Amino acid sequence: MPQGTAPGRTPHIRGFLYASDACARIAQRLPVIAGSDSSVLIVGETGTGKEICAQALHYLSRRADGPWVAVNCAAVPVELIESELFGHVKGAFTTAHSSRHGLVKEAEGGTMFLDDIDCLPLLAQGKLLRFLQQQEYRPVGCNTVQRSDVRVIAASNRDLRVMVKQNAFRQDLYFRLNVLPVALPPLRERREDIALLAEHFVRQFDQARGGDGRRLSAQALQKLLAYDWPGNVRELRHVIERSVLLAAGARIEADDIAIDPALDADAQAEAPDPAGESFQAAKKRVVERFERQYIETLLALHHGNLTHAAHAAKKNRRAFFELVRKHQIDTRRFNDSP
């Protein structure tokens, strides 16, 4: 989620731009979560905005003036993770030519964000658990215990409960981190955010290149709304950046929206399992998915106006409304679409 807020939404939270009820509910919870020092576990698919959410919690908290330290656990070599987190003393290992503070020390009085926490090796998980429980740690090679005042926010795009069952993640650490859980929905489940995010990114990248006032055409927006975005907000951002840079005119057309066909969920429709699903059940599932996506796309294009959406679908308003009601779509969610 990029920086900003949706029109008419409260509370005002740094880093959040949304029109969906799903994100509005998360935004309402964040100030409460930020008011505590308990651990937070943010889960969601890649690109859903887990670090933006963690930053929002930091800047809403009493620690806002303290340091913000982000750690990508997947990028730190296994043999160095403990030293990176807790530091080391001179001579602790072969290449330790001098003492060095760890990231926990750098985050003192602030917030430490542990992204891809699922990549943390089991030995380091035990050390992190002790730190969370006691708020104390020992640098590698040091016999002295050091105290710390750091709030930890962790994030993962994997189901840690499954990893616990597979003995790949410590159950006690999972419980310790999951005191205050936040689950970020994928972009395909909050399509009413797509138009708002896309327009935001267009303005952002247009201004960065001099500000020609570029806008998305209705056809371009429709193409964006019809795509499932497996890479979520991050993928949308990259697609818009490329479109702004390559579009020939002031208006970005559908042909300027380059989506990788290998990732297109529509090009690779959900394959039914013939062994576990009947023809009728598979057909019903695909039809319902199409109907809901089609309706939501039209509602986003017409800002939630049922009459205009029905006209575009070449259906009478009553029949279109019945489809909206069948899929339990709240048209008010689309009123903030640009």
TrEMBL record:
Species in which this protein is naturally found: Lysobacter silvisoli
InterPro entries per record: AAA+_ATPase, AAA_lid_NorR, Homeodomain-like_sf, P-loop_NTPase, Sigma_54_int, Sigma_54_int_dom_CS
Coiled-coil stretches: none
Xref: PROSITE patterns: SIGMA54_INTERACT_3 (PS00688), SIGMA54_INTERACT_4 (PS50045)
One BP term from GO: regulation of DNA-templated transcription
Keyword Transcription applies: yes
Protein name stated in the entry: Sigma-54-dependent Fis family transcriptional regulator
Positions of the Sigma-54 factor interaction domain: 16-245
Keyword Transcription: yes
UniProt keyword list: ATP-binding, Nucleotide-binding, Transcription, Transcription regulation
Record GO terms (molecular function): ATP binding
